[in-house]
Hints:
Largest sheet of chain B: 6 strands, parallel
Oligomer: heterodimer
Number of helices of chain A: 12
Helix content of chain A: 25-40%
Number of strands of chain B: 8
Radius of gyration of chain B: 23 Å
Number of strands of chain A: 14
Bound molecules: thiamine diphosphate
Distance between the termini of chain A: 50 Å
Distance between the termini of chain B: 66 Å
Order of helices and strands of chain A: EHEHEHEHHEHEHEEEEHEEHEHEHH
Structural class of chain A: alpha/beta
Largest sheet of chain A: 7 strands, mixed
Strand content of chain A: 15-25%
Number of helices of chain B: 13
Largest interface: A-B, 47 and 51 residues
Radius of gyration of chain A: 19 Å
Shape of chain B: globular
Strand content of chain B: 5-15%
Amino acid sequence: MTVQKLPIAKAINESLRKAMETDPKVLIMGEDVGKLGGVFRVTDGLFKDFGEDRVIDTPLAESGIVGTAIGLALRGYRPVVEIQFDGFVFPAYDQIVTQLAKMHARALGKIKLPVVVRIPYGGGIGAVEHHSESPEALFAHVAGLKVVSPSNASDAYWMMQQAIQSDDPVIFFEPKRRYWDKGEVDPEAIPGPLHAARTVRAGSDLTLVAYGPMVKVCLEAAAAAQEEGKSIEVVDLRSMSPIDFDAVQASVERTGRLVVVHEAPVFYGAGAEIAARITERCFYHLEAPVLRVGGYHAPYPPARLEEEYLPGLDRVLDAVDRSLAY
Amino acid sequence: MTVESTAARKPRRSSKRTAGAGARKTAADPELVQLLTPEGERVEHPDYAIDLSAEELRGLYRDMVLTRRFDAEATALQRQGELGLWASLLGQEAAQIGSGRALRDDDYVFPTYREHGVAWCRGVDPTNLLGMFRGVNHGGWDPNSNNFHLYTIVIGSQTLHATGYAMGIAKDGADSAVVAYFGDGASSQGDVAEAFTFSAVYNAPVVFFCQNNQWAISEPTEKQMRVPLYQRAQGFGFPGVRVDGNDVLACLAVTKSALERARRGEGPTLVEAFTYRMGAHTTSDDPTKYRADEEREAWEAKDPILRLRAYLENAGHADAAFFEELESESETLGKRVREAVRAMPDPEPMAIFDNIYADGHALVDEERAQFAAYQASFATESEGGVAAVEGN
Ligand SMILES: Cc1ncc(C[n+]2csc(CCOP(=O)(O)OP(=O)(O)O)c2C)c(N)n1
C-alpha cells in the first residue's frame, strides 16, 4: 500500500489486513464479520482472503464473543472482536469489566490479554434505538482497559495497528458516522504513541478538546469562529483512557480557556474528568471555567430528534462565546 | 488447525458451500408438525388435531394477506424515505398469525422487532408499529392496552421479561399464559438460556416461540447451533416441538396446545417454527452478499399464503368474491398506512426530556430549562435578527 486517500472504514479494513498478514495470531471475530464483511463492511474481503479459521462468524452472543476472545488470548492469539453496534456491547459488559479488565492484575502480571474490542459508536446516522450511543465513559471508568477513538483515516489505520499490538485490552470506538469520511493514510509513516493527543488546529483564544466524531464538528466551529476573528485551538484527544493531560494542559496554558465536546451525556462523562484535572493543573491560567458540551441526561432520542440532541456547530460556538465572555 | 469432528458430529462444511444446502429439514420431515402440505392438502397429525370452520379458515387467510400487505407497504415507505428502516416479516406470516390467533385476550406477548403479524392479531393498530421505524419514538404503543409488549431490539432480552411476567401470573394464581418471540440467532444469547432455566425451575406458564427463519442477518443457523433447536428444550427439562412455520394451521394447533399446557400449570414449551425470511434482514441489509437465490426460490414454493389459498379453493371454503373483497380491503389498508405515516409529525424537540423518570429528576429539569432557553434563542434570532447567543 502506498499513500492513499481512504474512508475511515476502509482504513480500518486495511489496518486489520496488515495486522493479519504480519501476525498469524491475529483473529477477527464477531457477528456477520465473515461473508457479509460486517454490517458496515469494515471486515470486507478478509474472510475471502484469510478464511474462516481467522475471520470467525460467531454465534449471536456478545458475552460469548468477548469471553471466548479472552480464552483465545490466554492461548496466545490476538483476537480483534467486533460488537455490531454500541448498544449491543452490554451483554458483553460483564466479561469486559469483570474479566478482561482485571485478569492481568489478578495474575500478578503473568498473563496478558491482547484483545481489541471494536465498537462502532455514536449517532447521526438516523438509526433506531441502541444504534447511536456513546458509552465510552462506562469503559474508561474501569481500570485495566485502554479506551481510544480515532477521528480520521490515518489515525484509524495507525491506532488499530497499535491497539492490536498492545498487550492490554483496548476498547476501540469507531465513529460510525465518519466511516465514509476520506483522509490520507501513509503506511510508511511513523505514528505517535497510541495515548497521545494531537493539536489538529492551532489557535490562541480558546482550546476545544474532542475525540472521535466530534473532532470534525470542532474543526468546523473553529473555522466559523475564525471568521468572527476568534482564534480557536482544537485538540483531538484520541485516547480517553489514558488521557494525555499534558497536551491539554499545554494548550490551555497557551489559550486560557477550555471547552470539552463529546456526544456522550455530559453528566459523569469524559468532560467532567477533563474539567476537573485541568482546573487542578491550570487554575491560574484559566480565564473562564472549563465548559462542557455534550449529550443530555436522557436516552438517546429517536432519529428525528437526534440533530437537536447531538452537539452541532451552534452549540459548540455558543459555549465558545460563553467562555470568551468571562 | 486440527479440529476434527467426532462421529456424532455433523461434518464441517466448507465456507464456500452455497447457503442453504446440506442437511436442512424439509417440510416432509417427520420431526415437523404439519397440517397443510405445501400443495395445500390437509393432513392430520396424531397430537395436533384441529377443526376450524370455513369462516375461521378465511379469517386466517385474511390476516395473513393483510399483514403481508401492511409489510409490503412499510417496505415501500422505507424506500420512499418515509421510514428510516423496516424489518420485513415476508414469509413468516403463518408462524405469526397461527401463533397469534392461538392466544387469548388475557395472554401476554413479548415480541422482538419483526412481529407485525402478531401485533395485528393483538389488535395493535399497524400504524403504531411504524413510529419507531420512522424515528419519531422508541415504542409507540401502551403495552397494556393489547397485552402486547414493546418491540425489543437487543437480541434475546425479552425472553427473560416474558419469563418473569409468566412467573407473576403463576404467583397470582391466574390461568393466563405468555408467549415470548425470538429468532434462531437469538437462541445463542445467554439471556435466552437463562430464560429457559428460570422458566423450567419456576414452572412458568410461558411459550417460547422461536421463528427459525434460517438466518441471523448473514449467518445461517449452522453458525448458531449444531442440534435442531427444538431439541434444546429437553436439556432444560421441558418439551420442544418443531412445527412447519409456513403452515398456519399447524402453528395455530401447536401454539394452542403449548398454551393449554402452560395454563394447566405444566410449565414452558419451546416451539420452533421452521420458516424462512424471504426478504432482506432489514431494509439496510443486502442478502445477495451471503445467500443464494435458489434457496429463496425453493422456499417460495412453500409460501404460507398460497398454500392456504390452494386449500380454501380446493375445499370450496372461499369463492372468487371473497378474494376480490380481500384485495380491495388490502388496498384500503395500504392507503391508510401510507397516509398515516406521511401525516406522522416529528416529535417536539422538548420531548427529549419527557418520561425519563416516573418521579422526576432535578438534573433533567435543569437541562430541560437550559434546552428551552437555547431553543428560544434561535427564535429571537430569526425574529429580531439579534445574534442571540452572543454574550450570555
Ligand atoms: C445484543 C444484540 N446483538 C446484535 C444485534 C444486531 N442484530 C439485530 S438483528 C440480528 C440478527 C437476529 O437474528 P435472529 O435472532 O435469527 O432473528 P431474525 O432477525 O432473523 O428474525 C442482529 C445480529 C442486536 N440487535 N442485539
